[in-house]
């Protein structure tokens, strides 16, 4: 008996180890996707903030003045070059990046792309970028990221943001890279580390099970003997209790019959006046030809009230001082979903929500602004999802760099290419998206207040809004680094 149970424990333990190993190996692709998302969040934040730090007029002056390849041979040869170089170099050092940050600019005919200023001590000025990715060329004026591309210098993951001059023109982009081989090495090392941790944990669990089983088996022999005597006594008690239960069941049946009679009688008493009230209400609606207008006025008034609330919110965002405090993202999301589910329960079919959350630890930000972002995005998702079969997907996580990523997609309203380009511009977004443009503008204003990024994409027949918001203290640390650079 002892050997048999010991074999069972060992078998279960081996199965757990195999299952854990299997899940770890098959989560490899998921690990890559999560790692890429974290890498793009970090690179996008770096390029976005640096593009705001670099003076576009200064960069433009530099490229006009030095028009030949390798005309700048040292970082200190030119003041403008050295100034921008110092910003890039100190950022690379402070963030422990393994790859130089650099700027890119187009030729006067827009057909070629050249390297500008780099964080490296060895200038690579006006060398032609032989094989730039098509995403860079297509979105040069808007910025973005490029997933796993191969050029003359290797395989990379990149993010870039436009550098704007005083006229509002894009004169260059600042680009931050991560070497893909180094990225994959980190992912594989993380996978090996996770498997090792799992094996250690399950080994400890197996050892503790073994120690626990030894004690249990010793007690089981004594327990078996006492159990036989207990069973005999239990049979006697069961017979006694069964008789008592039969008596109680008879009494309960009588009580149930009385309750049934009571509910039958009172339901008919209540139903009579209720039916008369419903009949009178129906008659009043048919006699009052203004009722439909009153209902329409009420609907439109509600829309206007929503618009006024959003307008007040936008105004408050522009003047509000940030109140930074720890925010539990999961609790905030659950509270908002609870309110919206009640709000749309009577106007739509049951809404299917798929939520994927990872690492939703405490996040430092302005609670009121963050809540307004979540509420407006989710309210749009509820309002404009398909009426008959609404579907909403929510994916939120906070990566190791302290950046909150929120993506919400629904199967309702679709955007044209032009609408997506101007989705967050209040007076340019015409056409199908007119009904939600104020909401999107409100979202963009709130995200900007928190130094975040928001975008709209099409994902598998769904419309997705994605938001990246850095932890407040990440931005403060970065600003301190910038002050140090300028000093």
Question: Could you describe the 3D structure shown?
Answer:
This protein is of the alpha+beta class and 487 residues long. It folds into two domains: 1-287, Beta-Lactamase; 302-480, Histidine kinase-like ATPase, C-terminal domain (Heat Shock Protein 90, 2-Layer Sandwich). It is 59% helix and 18% strand. It has twelve helices and twelve strands. It has helices spanning 2-26, 28-53, 56-65, 79-94, 134-138, 180-287, 291-319, 329-343, 367-384, 417-421, 437-449, 472-486; strands spanning 102-106, 113-118, 144-151, 154-164, 170-179, 324-328, 352-358, 362-366, 391-398, 403-410, 453-459, 462-470. The strands form three sheets. A five-stranded antiparallel β-sheet has the order 2-1-5-4-3. It has a five-stranded mixed β-sheet with strand order 7-9-10-12-11, sandwiched between helices. Helix 2 (28-53) packs across helix 6 and helix 9 (367-384) packs antiparallel against helix 11 (437-449). The longest helix is centred in the middle third of the chain and has 108 residues, at 180-287. The protein is extended, with a radius of gyration of 33 Å. Mean pLDDT is 76; it is low at 258-274, 276-284 and 292-297.
